[in-house]
Amino acid sequence: MDCCKKFCNSPQIIPNQISIQWRTSGTLIFPYSSDQIAAISGYVLNNSASKGPVTVNFLRGGIGGALLPFSLIVQTGEYKSFVIVGVDTIRIDSGSNFATGELNITINFNPF
């Protein structure tokens, strides 16, 4: 294997960027989950057409895992950015409201 292929195909070397359009109506959504994540940064946008705020929770241990002691409340028409280590799942909860938006993240598989 030549050097270029070795490094270009390694998720430990190159972070991935992901943009997800989400929508929820009174149910939780999990727009991203992976046991390969070491650290993430990005933002959550709650569109101005949404009917209320959303809560963004970060979990470790998958969908049924423990909540990390960091969450974001994103009001209608706003966005919030984050940088967090030790997360493998992102959950968005709109309560009983209809909401749409965007989640944009950069995944760093090897932050140190």
TrEMBL record:
Top-rank taxon, per record: Bacteria
Protein name from the UniProt record: Uncharacterized protein
Organism: Ectobacillus funiculus
